[in-house]
Amino acid sequence: MKIEAITLRKLKMRLKAPFETSFGQVWERPVLLVELLADGVSGWAECTPMEGPFYNPETTGTAWHVTRDFLVPLVLGQSVASAAEIPALFSAIRGHEMARAGIENALWDAEARQKGIPLWKLLGGTREEIACGVSLGIQATPEALLEKVGTELNAGYQRIKIKIKPGKDIEYARAVRKAHPAIRLSVDANSAYTLSDVEHLRKLDEFGLLMMEQPLWWDDIHAHAKLQKEMRTPVCLDESIYHLRHAATAIELDACRVVNIKLGRVGGHTSAREIQAYCQERSVPVWCGGMLECGIGRAHNIAMSTLPGFVYPGDVSASKRYWEEDVIEPEVEVTPRGTIVVPQRPGIGYAVRQELIERLTVEKETWRAR
Ligand code: OSB
Ligand code: MG
């Protein structure tokens, strides 16, 4: 496949409601989309940084800069047999996983379309229906949270994850567990605690949580190993895992017993597949995390979630939970059993709504091979 052109665009999109984590509140969600033309076939992907460097070091601005000035020159005009060869072309680039994932994943879609098969089959997926969970932002009161939990359970979602931070943690988890003794429940702290909070975090052990996600520093695997020794609740790492070696380090140190895989954070489908295969061999469960994606990112998350190591429900939910109008057709829908039926059409399996995308675009740049 010859890479003939790459278009990067920024869409102005706004979530239906603000989403609050320990690092702040988002409502405006600038969405970056990559369209890549290979042998005359277009592939699409989403590049997933937040607007500012508060989840990971990347931003929409750094992704644009690195894509234009460093990644595009490495791949434009190049010929590859598979999208799996892209990481080798990017080997000189340090960090900027989300920027790299945008280009690599767009080529995965183009490759699957050229072969006339769904992306999930090209990746080696083995399930035709994936289990879904939701991530609920921090709410003003435990009562407000309970109401949201009720709505999502009624919709069928199989796992509830609540965001926590100091002062909005134990009582929130206690309220949800008391109202719903048997549900799969987890918490996500997005690095809001330190090792001096061990005694406090241990209080979560009584709620039988599926996991506690990224309680400590985003860049410190060793600290999580110290915490895991003191807690029964399995620690799950999100922010700390950028690639296979991080996952291997974390598992060898028993810093986590579950891994959250986000396609952008780990640099694309090739790296995500490596991490899931490694974890599967060691019986460490993985699941698909989300970055408040529009339908294009969601479609890639669905394809990835069909791989055999993805044993827990992911943060892969219906388009309508976040968007008035999504950029794919049909939108991502969740069945009353809390699953998504994986699409069978070639590529990401959803049609891209070009006209709507054009209308939402506020910045666009195209690079063509000569
Ligand atoms: O930690 O998983 C996270 C959103 C933005 C940044 C970090 C996280 C999240 C989510 C969103 O939890 C989950 C979703 O996309 O549904
Ligand atoms: Mg997380």
Write up what this structure looks like.
This protein has 370 residues and is an alpha/beta fold. Helices cover 33% and strands 22% of the residues. It has helices at residues 60-75, 86-89, 97-115, 119-123, 142-154, 170-179, 198-202, 221-230, 244-252, 269-281, 295-304, 354-360, and strands at 3-11, 14-21, 24-28, 31-38, 41-47, 129-131, 133-136, 159-163, 184-188, 211-213, 235-237, 258-261, 286-288, 328-329, 339-341, 351-352, 361-368. The chain has a seven-stranded parallel sheet. Magnesium ion binds next to loops.
Give the topology:
Blueprint: E1 3-11, E2 14-21, E3 24-28, E4 31-38, E5 41-47, H1 60-75, H2 86-89, H3 97-115, H4 119-123, E6 129-131, E7 133-136, H5 142-154, E8 159-163, H6 170-179, E9 184-188, H7 198-202, E10 211-213, H8 221-230, E11 235-237, H9 244-252, E12 258-261, H10 269-281, E13 286-288, H11 295-304, E14 328-329, E15 339-341, E16 351-352, H12 354-360, E17 361-368
Parallel strand pairs: 7-8, 8-9, 9-10, 10-11, 11-12, 12-13
Antiparallel strand pairs: 1-4, 1-17, 2-3, 4-5, 6-15, 14-16
Helix pairs in contact: 1-3, 5-6, 9-10
The structure holds 2-succinylbenzoate and magnesium ion.
